[in-house]
Amino acid sequence: MSESKRQQKFSRLLQKELSEIFQRDIPHLFKNTMVTVTDVRVSPDLSVAKAFLSFMLAPNQQQLLDVVNERKAEVRNMLGRRIRKEVRHVPELVFFLNESADYAAHMDRVISSLDIPPAPDEEE
After folding, report:
1. By three-state DSSP, how is residue 120 classified?
2. Where are the domains of the chain?
3. Which string of DSSP letters, residue by residue, matches 28-87?
4. Side-chain-side CA neighbours of residue 9 (13 Å)
5. β-strands 48-56, 34-42: how paired?
6. Half-sphere exposure of 111 toward its Cβ, with a 13 Å CA cutoff?
């Protein structure tokens, strides 16, 4: 099911604002790790936002995701202050790891390890 224009617009707003919060307001939580909000998906009633995060240069991504989840109320509060003039209610935030880069690297390793013989020359 595809998102409505309203959901898409709201998702982009949340992605932008959450990115700025992670980059500018609370970067101290992540030490030398860069946090990227790769995608945000909102429910049709805009009450729940699923944010997918990617942590670059992180030795333990799950540990950083746990830190974000521990500070979820603080992040939501900061988000509310940033978007209060544009929305009535700040959505409930749910954070997930974006594992697409890890999956792509895994598939690259699998494909590289395959022993595929060269195609035979075709005779005309």
Report:
1. coil
2. 5-113
3. GGGTTPEEEEEEEEE-TTS-EEEEEEEEET-S-HHHHHHHHHHTHHHHHHHHHHHHTTT-
4. 6
5. antiparallel
6. 6
Instruction: State both tokens at 120.
Output: 């035979």
67, 68, 72, 76: CA torsion to nearest 10: 150
> Token pair for residue 69?
């989840």
Share of the chain above pLDDT 90, in %: 48
Q: Candidates 3.30.300.20, 3.40.50.740, 1.10.3520.10, 3.40.50.800; correct CATH number of 5-113?
A: 3.30.300.20
pTM of the model: 0.78
d(CA 78, CA 8): 21
Model confidence pLDDT, tens digit, residues 19-67 = 999 999 888 888 888 888 999 999 999 999 999 998 887 788 889 899 9
Locate 82 and state its tokens: 């940033």
